[in-house]
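Quick start: what a row looks like.
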Amino acid sequence: MSNYLISQGKEMPSQSDNKYFDIFVSPILSCEHYKPKLGAGGKVGVDLQKFHEIYGDDPFYSWIGVNSDLMYAAHKAAGGMTSVYRQIGIGCERLFREIIFDQTGYNDRALATWSYTAQTRSGKDKTLSLDGRLKLDEVVNNEVKAATESWLRNYCDGLQVQYPPNGIVFEVRQGYKSKDSKRQNGDIDNATVAWSKGYLPVFSVFSSQIDNDIVVRYRNNSCGILVGLNNDNPNISLFAFCRQVLGYDMAAFFERNSEELRMQIEMVLEKLLRAE
């Protein structure tokens, strides 16, 4: 059932490790080429030479000295950090979805995602999607299907909601430090539609850092929420859920590959902090 191997009581790298590593890291590595826009960079961004042209031609900025390499590095780092977090989030989405696809044995990759069409205020249709799906009647792996059904019954009892006939849809986040009410309202709108389509909406946060008010609000709106706690409770911990329900030890994957992951991230950060 699980993709990891056991040898003399220790977890060994699986054949999936290289694939999962590349899926997670690839979006993050794109950040090393980040350049600040500064209101004039378009899609490409402004390099150091162009920065000096723009700021050097500005009398005020030139007088007070913000046309310096350090200021460019600060702009690059500030925007770059936002980009790094965003790309980590994309890596988390892709990794989690790939694990779902591999562990369920789906015959169609499209089954691992879920989307719906909604109407905007202007009357136009827009498509909204969530990052992962466990569609019960399409899960080929019987162990994963049984574990998902058991988890769903237990979790829905805790939420005091009815058992959803179709399964689970997931919104994946790398972390959730913001208390942005617009984002929360959008999440709850998605959750309402998910329930109407017979799915339990579950917010899956890789980091353990999340405001408890958000957890309470989502649960009060009949949403599941899993966070990056490395414990054995699959009703709270995303890693325990992956282990016990999906049959893949994602925490062990990160632990096995931690040194190389840290090196890749550090390389990106070093480039972002340099004025070049």
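That is the whole record. The beta strands are 5-7, 10-12, 114-119, 125-130, 132-135, 167-173, 199-205, 224-227. Residues 4 and 13 are 6 Å apart (CA to CA).
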